[in-house]
Specification:
Shape: extended
Distance between the termini: 122 Å
Largest sheet: none
Radius of gyration: 41 Å
Helix content: over 70%
Strand content: under 5%
Number of helices: 19
């Protein structure tokens, strides 16, 4: 490109820049007088004098960059006082579940350190010493058991006081089932469920406090009345939070009586109607003897009489066949076999089949032992044959895996043979 052409282009560009700058200056100088924030608010005579100042105010300000940093430090939240620590966490909007996690972890770490002290005998580690040198002395073992029992009592009470939670239930959420309450109370709306669980925790905490103060763990007559008053207040609170139908289902779902029945009636397989009928009688009995001293002979005798009456009522209610099945649940071997059959997906009649084989084998053994005319060697051979047949038949009925599991606790088969 020729030098002269380059110069002309540069001059042209400069001219355009100059004209543009001029018109922009005029525009910004005139605009505030017409459109600025003070237009129409000043007297006419003062308008011209105010224009330059108004123009300055109307010009776009240079952007101001503001740097914000989170100045919150964890040291501002932590406190040696757990109540204050919890209040600080809640004050900054920490979710309640996170508050619980933080406090539970911290408290349990402290108690773990306390526990650890009682597992050492205080002797410094020396790699050349054998293990017996660091074993606890008998006095130390006794002290450890006493201290661990105290810790096991303190820890739930402290977490209940700080967070209003049931320690065992909360820990189970990490190891067993975090959604158990939601499944059991699925018949309630989510909001109602939350209110009911909060009430449960509140009244549980009050009971625990009374029992904590009971001398030797045995409530005084005055404390028993306190516990009964807490029960009455809880009943009233729950009745006010649920309909009558929901309240009854809540008892069927969560009460200690219902939980005990679900454990004790294994193998009975009750219908819903049967469960409700039995529950009504069992709960009445539990309520009547709640907080009573069952070591008292008079109390024990009265309770036994009421239990006998309940059994007679159930016999009439269930009929002979179902009552016989109900009675069978009191047999630990029957319950064990029922659980085993469920676990290994075996037919439902397996439990009764094995029990019948056991009864026949033990009767045959008893007859052999009672017959003194049989020589000892022949008797022993016959006993061993009974044992071998019982083993074979039981294994065939249960299958190898279930049989091996069963015989870990069922010793009756090994007891059939000659001693």
């Amino acid at each position: 490109m020729k030098p002269r052409l380059v110069v002309l282009i540069c001059l042209f560009n400069l001219t355009l820049l100059g004209v543009g700058y001029f018109w922009l200056a005029v525009y910004f100088n005139e605009r505030p007088a017409r459109e600025g924030p003070a237009a129409g608010l000043l007297p006419d005579g003062a308008q011209a004098h105010a224009a330059p100042a108004a123009a300055e105010r109307a010009l776009p300000a240079a952007p101001v960059v503001i740097y914000k940093t989170n100045q919150l430090q964890w040291s501002q939240l932590e406190s040696s006082d757990y109540r204050q620590y919890i209040a600080n966490l809640r004050a900054v909007g920490c979710p309640e579940a996170t508050v619980r996690d933080i406090i539970i972890t911290d408290v349990m770490r402290l108690y773990a350190a306390r526990r650890g002290k009682f597992y050492q005998n205080g002797r410094a580690f020396k790699y050349w010493e054998t293990d017996e040198k660091r074993k606890l002395k008998q006095t130390q073992l006794e002290e450890r058991e006493a201290q661990l029992a105290l810790i096991d009592k303190e820890l739930p009470a402290i977490l209940r006081e700080l967070l209003g939670i049931n320690y065992e239930r909360e820990v189970n959420k990490y190891f067993v089932d975090a959604e158990e309450d939601d499944r059991r109370l699925a018949f309630l709306s989510e909001d109602k469920r939350a209110r009911i669980l909060a009430l449960r925790d509140q009244f549980e905490g009050r009971r625990e406090q009374v029992l904590w103060e009971a001398p030797g763990g045995k409530p005084t007559p005055g404390q028993i009345e306190q516990l009964r008053q807490i029960d009455r207040e809880q009943d009233a609170a729950l009745a006010g939070a649920m309909t009558a139908e929901e309240r009854y289902e809540f008892e069927l779902t969560t009460s200690p009586t219902a939980d005990r029945m679900r454990r004790e009636l294994i193998g009975f397989n009750p219908t819903e109607a049967e469960f409700r009928q039995i529950f009504a009688r069992e709960q009445a009995l539990d309520t009547a003897y709640a907080y009573q001293d069952t070591n008292d002979p008079d109390v024990r005798a009265a309770q036994a009489a009421d239990e006998q009456k309940m059994t007679q009522d159930l016999q009439t209610l269930l009929g002979p066949d179902r009552f016989a099945q109900f009675e069978q649940t009191g047999n630990p071997d029957y319950q064990s076999l029922t659980l085993l059959a469920e676990r290994f997906d075996l037919p439902p009649d397996v439990s009764q089949t094995v029990l019948d084989m056991r009864r026949l084998a033990e009767e045959a053994r008893s007859q052999l032992l009672s017959n003194q005319d049989i020589p000892a060697d022949r008797r022993n051979a016959a006993l061993n044959a009974i044992q071998a047949e019982a083993e074979r038949a039981t294994r065939q009925t249960l299958g190898d895996k279930a049989y091996d599991e069963y015989t870990r606790s069922a010793t009756w088969i090994r007891g059939l043979g000659a001693n």
